[in-house]
From TrEMBL:
Pfam families: GalKase_gal_bdg (PF10509), GHMP_kinases_N (PF00288). GO terms for biological process: carbohydrate metabolic process. This is L-arabinokinase. Residues 603-691 form the GHMP kinase N-terminal domain. The keyword Nucleotide-binding applies. GO terms for molecular function: ATP binding. Residues 489-529 form the Galactokinase N-terminal domain. The keyword Membrane does not apply. It comes from Heracleum sosnowskyi. Keywords: ATP-binding, Nucleotide-binding.
Length: 981
């Protein structure tokens, strides 16, 4: 790009986000090219001057120190504080929004800006629009994408922030999109450019010569952008003969002799290129420079930053990344990772001139050329937004809060590229139950094709070392780790547990309701091997930290790339001990929460701790586990329960424990409540452990009394339809509704106690004619343990009027002190819905009883209509509690439309009802219909209509399978001719 491209000098206003140096460094490269072309650039930033002036010394660079957003607030170098991020953004950009816009519009007009560029400050785009100036964003992610996950976790109080950011971005002309990009639905048009990378000032040899480091010395650069708090670097962290360059070290930090402190304003690219590998956290700057200079990158995951998996996939695709477990970073177990890194040969050959290309596009745009061509339709953007998990969530004042282009997306015919629904061909490979690779010493396959497939995948593990053809590159780490997991000369135990479809009962389980649950076809398999520590095959990083010959737990979890988590977990089993006793649950919860990328391991390893604490089990042998789940996460079909039940079933079988399915489910609930920290009831675990194929498990959750199995009549069928919205039982809304329910119960008990005292006082006055009501029901209600034991008529006549719609946590605690729920904590500053939350389980229990009775009545259209009506009532009760979602509402509406269509009314009818399931706030709906071909056709039509409206093709769950208790376990051994050499 040269000065001759334009005849006049242009003026650019470039807004830089306040999140870290990475944005400022890539902005520097674009700005440098604009200035080389002869233009003036005004940079609005909170970053230090040296970040820009080290690379650019020009009077055409103007730095204006203003911070207009805050990015993600980090508790430390690796931990993002989600709630603090939202609150800080509100303080920085929302509360003073009017004055910000006024100031920025006046400033933009005063400098006579030709174009506004943003990386990626939302309000900059809106200010440009108000000033009548075009704007362009340059980025690989946007803040609506990042904050969407924060809102899901922190509650809906800050949801308007996400919509405001999306609205601001929508004023942008187009997006200059960098490699490693995330879904960014707010932008209408896109121009892709190569990597934006800072150029080198000095060659490798010159940098090493200045440092006094020979060319053959292995050199790692520690590039964290701030080091974890309280972290001390250790001399023995490095392999012998290695040296480490440390960026961002504090002035008074004392480093070991093999660590070298770099100046705070050092030009980092030169030192990265002079190193043999880099150790740090993933960000656009570090990844782009590692790829450009072909430097292997040993990375540690950051929690709660959604940009990371996209950059990580790019890094690993070009064979430039090695993932380090966070605790190995903090404890100094670096050696196996560094030694692995220098064996890599990064192969990125793409362009690195993104700064020049982006500058040319910006220049052309400023002089009026049309640069964008890749127009994204509203439907495509809506699809992307659903992927983020917030688009169709219920929003108060939707017509005001949601950008117009989102609302209009349903009518657009653009790029409807919804998620592909994975098809399962049950008889694709196996038409009989004979598995030639393994000898089945115990158990029965029960003709389950998914179990046969799982055994086949086990048999193929020994081929992973020889060929990468069995999986995509991003899945190879899982397979390589699994291939080194088992000693094939020893027995392996296999357990299986299905997910569940919540037919009726749902969130009333924690209030003691009757529930009806159906185990689904999709299940989790766990293979486990308990073996003497001397025979266990250990990964290199596990070997590095092993204490003598102590037993070690190693877990591989397939599917990690789908949810941004580490594929492996390992720990010494002795870590579960604290002073000779199993550690407290609270300590265990903290232990697993330290590294969010490995928090998933709490669902698996937590079963071991619960067995230790509750049954006194002690584990002397090492444990290797492979977890493979076909139950999709975040869809409300109990993926977590299936993992817990399959894991505990496998461990119990391998250890020779005889645990009944009911007891096992109760133990698994303790895993989720106390180790994971999710406030769930027990119905999910009970359905997964005790259910049977094509039957409904009927259970009264007080705490877990199985009434029996209810046959699904042959003329009735249930389907699950996924809305595409991620559901989390640990989410703030599920928890807040649960708290509101327990608040309501305590208020009812308190009111009953007061009424009883008054009645007894009148009775003691000897004038029994003045008694307002019988004391017997009040006696029961003053000590009400389960809210579902209160009948609807008693609720309406005695308590409905005394329950407030909403109550502040502080107000409640002042009057009632406790809400007596052991798994939730009241936030004093938060308002909780009480009346709807308390009413729901009382009426839901009644609806489930009626539903169960109707299932056994004579088959008729009236029977199906009544069953469907009960499901519709349940769905609307969820919405009253605040657990609805626009996506699930849309699906229920489509079922209603199918039910009321001329085709259905002209015959016997096909579909009859539907409801949101489980914890609500997204996830899956359950639909009921006649068991016939036309019903299936209508379900598929609903699937396509939902895709046409949103761009997302929902997963349909149909079919059923046995629970873990019915399956039991398999004990298998590889046949001699198939042992891995």
């Amino acid at each position: 790009m040269n000065r001759g491209d334009v005849s006049n000098r242009l003026i650019f206003a470039y807004y830089v986000t306040g999140h870290g140096f990475g944005h400022a460094t890539r902005v520097t490269e674009v700005v440098r090219n604009l200035i080389v072309a002869g233009h003036d650039v005004h940079v609005v930033t909170g970053a230090p001057d040296f970040v820009f002036t080290t690379e650019i010394q020009s009077p055409r660079l103007f730095l204006r120190k203003v911070l207009l957003d805050c990015g993600a607030v980090q508790a430390d170098a690796l931990t993002v504080d989600r709630l603090a991020s939202l609150e800080k953004y509100y303080e920085t950009a929302v509360a003073p929004r009017d004055s910000i816009l006024k100031t920025e519009v006046e400033w933009l007009q005063s400098i006579k800006a030709d174009l506004v560029v943003s990386d990626v400050v939302p309000v900059g785009c809106r200010a440009a629009a108000d000033a009548g100036i075009r704007s362009v964003c340059v980025t690989n992610f946007s803040w609506d994408f990042i904050y969407a996950e924060y809102v899901m976790a922190a509650g809906y109080d800050h949801r308007s922030i996400v919509w405001q950011i999306a609205e601001d971005y929508s004023h942008c002309e187009f997006l200059i999109r960098l490699p490693g990009y995330c879904p960014m639905p707010a932008f209408r048009d896109v121009v892709d450019v190569p990597l934006v990378v800072r150029r080198l000032h000095k060659p490798r040899k010159e940098v090493r010569k200045e440092l006094g480091i020979a060319d053959d010395v292995k050199l790692v650069i520690l590039n964290f952008g701030g080091q974890p708090a309280g972290w001390k670097l250790k001399e023995d962290s490095l392999p012998s003969g290695w040296l480490c360059l440390v960026c961002g070290s504090s002035e008074n930090q004392v480093l070991p002799p093999n660590f070298i402190k770099l100046a705070i304003d050092v030009y980092t690219p030169d030192f990265i290129a002079a190193s043999d590998c880099m150790l740090g956290k993933i960000g656009y700057g570090t990844v782009s420079e590692a790829l450009a200079y072909k430097i292997p990158f040993v990375f540690v995951r950051r929690d709660y930053f959604n940009e990371e998996p996209f950059l990580r996939n790019m890094l690993e695709y070009y064979q430039g990344g090695v993932e380090m477990i966070r605790r190995d970073l903090l404890t100094g177990q670096w050696r196996p990772y560094l030694e692995r890194a220098v064996m890599l040969k990064p192969c990125y050959e793409g362009g690195c001139n993104g700064g020049e290309v982006a500058a040319r596009v910006l220049q052309d745009t400023a002089i009026g050329k049309n640069c964008a061509s890749d127009k994204l339709s509203g439907a495509r953007r809506l699809r992307d937004a659903i992927v983020l998990g917030f688009q169709l969530q219920r929003v108060p004042g939707r017509e005001i809060s949601i950008p117009e282009w989102y609302a209009n997306a349903e009518s657009e015919f653009g790029l409807l590229t919804g998620s592909q629904n994975a098809e399962t061909n049950e008889s694709s490979v196996f038409e009989n139950s004979y598995i030639e690779d393994f000898e089945i010493l115990h158990g029965d396959l029960l003709g389950l094709s998914d179990t046969m497939s799982f055994l086949k995948s086990l048999a193929e593990l020994n081929t992973v070392y020889d060929s990468g053809k069995n999986a995509e590159k991003r899945q190879m780490r899982e397979l390589m780790a699994a291939a080194g997991l088992f000693n094939w000369e020893e027995d392996i135990i296999v357990a299986r547990a299905p997910g569940r479809l919540d037919v009726v009962g749902g969130i009333a389980d924690y209030s003691g309701s009757l529930v009806l649950q159906m185990p689904i076809r999709e299940a989790c398999h766990v293979a486990i091997q308990m073996i003497h520590p001397s025979k266990q095959r250990l990964w290199k990083h596990a070997q590095a930290r092993r204490r003598a010959s102590s037993p070690v737990l190693q877990i591989v979890s397939y599917g990690s790339e789908l949810s941004n988590r580490g594929p492996t977990f390992d720990m010494d089993l002795s870590d579960f001990m604290d002073g000779g006793q199993p550690m407290a649950y609270e300590k265990a919860k903290y232990y697993f929460a330290q590294d969010p990328s490995q928090k998933w391991a709490a669902y698996v390893a937590g079963t071991i701790l619960v067995l230790m604490k509750e049954l006194g089990v002690r584990f002397e042998n090492s444990i290797s586990m492979l977890v493979s789940s076909a139950v999709p996460e975040g869809k409300g079909v109990s993926s977590s329960a299936s993992i817990e039940v399959a894991s505990m079933s496998a461990i119990a079988a391998a250890h020779g424990l005889d645990i009944s399915p009911r007891e096992l489910a109760l133990l698994c609930q303790k895993v989720e409540n106390h180790v994971v920290g999710a406030p769930c009831g027990v119905m999910d675990q009970m359905a997964s452990a005790c259910g049977e194929a094509n039957k409904l498990l009927a259970m009264v959750c007080q705490p877990a009394e199985v009434l029996g199995l209810v046959d699904i009549p042959s003329h009735i069928r249930f389907w699950g339809i996924d809305s595409g919205l991620r559901h989390s039982i640990g989410g703030a809304d599920y928890g807040s509704v649960r708290i509101g329910t327990f608040m309501g119960r305590e208020m009812i008990k308190s009111t009953a106690s007061a009424k009883l005292s008054k009645s007894l006082s009148i009775a003691n006055g000897a004038n029994t004619d003045e008694l307002e009501e019988s004391a017997e029901p009040l006696e029961a209600e003053k000590s009400l343990e389960y809210l579902c034991n209160l009948s609807p008529h008693r609720y309406e006549s005695q308590y409905a009027k005394i329950l407030p719609e909403v109550m502040l946590g502080d107000t409640y605690l002042e009057k009632y002190v406790e809400h007596n729920d052991p798994v939730t904590i009241i936030d004093r500053k938060r308002n909780y819905g009480v009346k709807a939350a308390a009413k729901h389980p009382i009426y839901e229990n009644f609806r489930v009883k009626a539903f169960k009775a109707l299932l056994t009545s004579a088959a008729s259209d009236d029977q199906l209509t009544a069953l469907g009506e009960l499901m519709y009532q349940c769905h609307h009760s969820y919405s009253a509690c605040g657990l609805g979602a626009d996506g699930t509402d849309k699906l229920v509406q489509l079922v209603q439309e199918a039910q009321n269509s001329k085709l259905s009314k002209s015959g016997d009818g096909t579909l009859y009802g539907a409801k949101i399931t489980g914890g609500g706030s997204g996830g899956t709906i359950c639909a009921i219909g006649r068991n016939c071909l036309r019903s299936t056709q209508q379900i598929l039509q609903i699937q396509q209509r939902y895709k046409a409206a949103t761009g997302y093709l929902p997963v349909v769950f149909e079919g059923s399978s046995p629970g873990a208790g019915k399956f039991g376990h398999l004990r298998i051994r590889r046949r001699l001719s198939h042992k891995q050499e």
